[in-house]
Write the structure tokens for this entry.
Amino acid sequence: MKKVVTFGELLLRLDTLGHERFVVAEQFRARYTGAEANVAVSLANFRMEAYVVSKAPSHEVGQAWGQDKL
């Protein structure tokens, strides 16, 4: 089985609920994404062993990405 490691930054995407304008929204949905993570997920769907290497801050927001299943 081939193994792939991607390197890069993970992005925190904030989506407004109901397609509101960002500046007037009071609630957001947070998702973690990024090109490198997307590539790793795509390759894993082809049954390749894939990993993402990144650095996140040690506070709550930075550590929350590890709770998502990439």
